[in-house]
Amino acid sequence: MKIAIVRERVEGENRVAATPETVGKLIALGASVQVEKGAGLGSRILDKDYEAAGAAIAANAAAALKSADVVLTVRRPSAASLAGVSKGALVIGALDPYGNDKDVAALAKAGVTAVSMEFMPRITRAQVMDILSSQANLAGYQGVIEAAAAFDRAFPMMMTAAGTVRPAKAFVMGAGVAGLQAIATAKRLGAVVSATDVRPAAKEQVESLGGKFVAVEDEEFKQAETAGGYAKQMSAEYQAKQADLTAAHIAKQDIVITTALIPGRPAPRLITKAMVESMAPGSVIVDLAAERGGNVELTVPGQVIEHNGVTIIGYTNVQGRIPTTASQLYARNLLAFLTTLIDAKEKKLAINWDDELVKATVLTRDGAVVHPSFSGGDAKPAAPAKADAKPAAAKKPASKAAGAKPATARPAASKSTAAKPAAAKTATAKPPTARKIAAKRKAEALIDAAAAPKPVRARPVRSKAAADADAAAKTAAAKTAAAKKPGAKKPAAKKPAAKSAAAKAPANTPAETKPDTPKGDQ
Ligand code: NAD
Known about the structure:
Layout: E1 2-5, H1 20-28, E2 32-36, H2 47-52, E3 56-58, H3 61-65, E4 70-75, E5 90-94, H4 101-109, E6 113-116, H5 131-150, E7 158-160, E8 163-165, E9 169-173, H6 177-188, E10 192-196, H7 201-208, E11 212-213, H8 219-222, H9 236-250, E12 255-258, H10 273-277, E13 284-287, E14 304-307, E15 310-313, H11 323-339, E16 342-343, E17 348-349, H12 356-361, E18 364-365, E19 368-369, H13 372-375, H14 382-385, H15 391-395, H16 412-418, H17 421-425, H18 432-451, H19 464-484, H20 497-504, H21 510-513
Parallel strand pairs: 1-2, 1-4, 2-3, 4-5, 5-6, 9-10, 9-12, 10-11, 12-13, 13-15
Antiparallel strand pairs: 7-8, 14-15, 16-17, 18-19
Helix pairs in contact: 1-11, 5-6, 5-11, 5-18, 6-18, 7-18, 16-18
The structure holds nicotinamide-adenine-dinucleotide.
């Protein structure tokens, strides 16, 4: 089983798909790893570091790729560049297939099995493989750092002998993974933070991080979240109302970070030229949606421009501007997925083509484009398509807010609220602190989960039968223990363990803090 890692060819891409840490683990799984000379330099990883982890350094890409069974990559490689790989080789990376149908078809024609990590379902099992989260989290952080660097003033309030400096006002548009991290980072720097989103679930998360929530909370807003947790495309009417509300707010801001995205569509346009012109000179906008067309009318993707004294930062690969950390997390995401495709005992690939993770992410196979979003001309994005499997959940009245979402076991807090439907119904009667704590945990878990994927152990995947047997044994043992101790408390397994686990566990093992959840949307 030969795995190849080559230097990224896209201009300005400094990330790399494997680190010495993940190379070592792949070798422990029975792989031989070839790394192209200099592949890690953009992330400050030297060839000798890879060698120390057990990889061989190839003089060029062709030598690294020769007879490779697996190619790990950050960006989509051209079909031509993959000449020499084994027939059917897995090419795993952020392949960005939307709008690139020709390149996807070329990969199919080249005979490789292209795997698009962006389509990884957002279920508990796959959290450690979620490249969108790990990279968006860093983009949210780095976006604020870029804003602070371009801002002529201080972020925090400072009370000095020479007088008081007022804190900067920061507004975050879109409170998903990147937005929540941007809120947390701007707060840490001392800004007064507000945020908006079209999903009701975002409200408590924003508030729990200390941000003020600003949004048009009408009927459409209450229905704006798909069962997969993503935003829906909003109507023109809603967008107009949203623009009216945010226009006045933006005029008073020093920093605006935009992160709004809708899967499979161009980024929604949230800030017009007139809104930019309403801001004071010296203000800074960072458009983290620049790669998908931008949330700001004036954004020039890939560039930093100034309009009427307002700086608009349109970098298209913000996570790539913090490449060492981004590579570290990305490489772990890939390792976690690849581990599920390897039989470590036999030291070879053993792909279960029926596994939901494989089905969701494989774009091409045996010479054909096989992904339903591309092969059949149906342009529905794959990740949210998970929602289709749960129409009932999608139809639930959104007014019950986050706590009422039945299958949303994403972060620990949502699990505990979901487990108490009665409490969710009377959410207003609950003490506000409990809800706030839950929302804070949810927001923090989302950020932490994105930041710190669970380390993957190099061991074969256990069979379902073995897991079932284990579970049965544990239940029996728990029953016996309970029977022996009359009056004893309920077995710990039945507690909403997530609560205590989340509180106790270190931030870098979030996936372990969560109870296993039924397969479904997060
Ligand atoms: P995203 O990158 O698709 O979009 C960013 C944010 O923009 C979202 O919060 C979205 O609601 C918002 N948005 C879209 N249109 C908007 C508009 N017109 N105005 C304002 N905001 C707008 O989102 P994401 O970061 O991928 O997160 C999407 C969902 O997935 C969230 O509910 C998040 O909690 C969830 N999630 C789950 C997991 C997991 O279970 N493993 C991991 C990460 C995120």
